[in-house]
């Protein structure tokens, strides 16, 4: 029988650059997924900048922050990294993370982050 993992999404606002307020929001507090299943975590953000980067990180129970993937705002192609992919919608200011073939080690807190390109 496949194990059941639990993924947590958290709200975080990370901004590195000129003093313009940026907001990053993750609406779902937690998601459950069966092992080998697929899960999508959503993130929205606000910015008046045109050149920036968006990131996903995870924090497993051990506590370290682990980089997963980065999307450059000027790239139209969605970023992918192994079992992770993003759906980047610049006009809608939405940035979701899709985890395919989920595994028990995916049980973690997930963070969406923004960084100005400057």
TrEMBL record:
Keywords from the named record: Adaptive immunity, Cell membrane, Disulfide bond, Immunity, Immunoglobulin domain, Membrane, Receptor, Signal, T cell receptor
Gene source species: Bos mutus (wild yak)
InterPro entries xrefs: Ig-like_dom (IPR007110), Ig-like_dom_sf (IPR036179), Ig-like_fold (IPR013783), Ig_V-set (IPR013106), TCR_variable_region (IPR051287)
GO CC annotations, alphabetized: T cell receptor complex
Gene3D superfamilies in UniProt: Immunoglobulins
Flavoprotein among keywords: no
Coiled-coil residue windows: none
Name of the protein: Ig-like domain-containing protein
GO biological process: adaptive immune response
Main location as per UniProt: membrane
Signal peptide: 1-21
Subcellular location: Cell membrane
Domain Ig-like per the UniProt entry, residue ranges: 18-118
């Amino acid at each position: 029988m496949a194990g059941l993992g639990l993924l947590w999404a958290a709200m975080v606002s990370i901004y590195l650059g000129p003093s313009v307020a940026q907001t990053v929001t993750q609406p779902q507090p937690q998601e459950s997924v069966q092992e080998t299943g697929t899960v999508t975590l959503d993130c929205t953000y606000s910015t008046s900048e045109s050149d920036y980067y968006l990131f996903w990180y995870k924090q497993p129970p051990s506590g370290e922050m682990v980089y997963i993937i980065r999307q450059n705002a000027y790239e139209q192609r969605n970023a992918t990294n192994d079992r992770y992919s993003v759906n980047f919608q610049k006009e809608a200011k939405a940035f979701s993370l899709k985890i395919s073939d989920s595994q028990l080690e995916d049980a973690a807190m997930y963070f969406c982050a923004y960084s100005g390109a400057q």
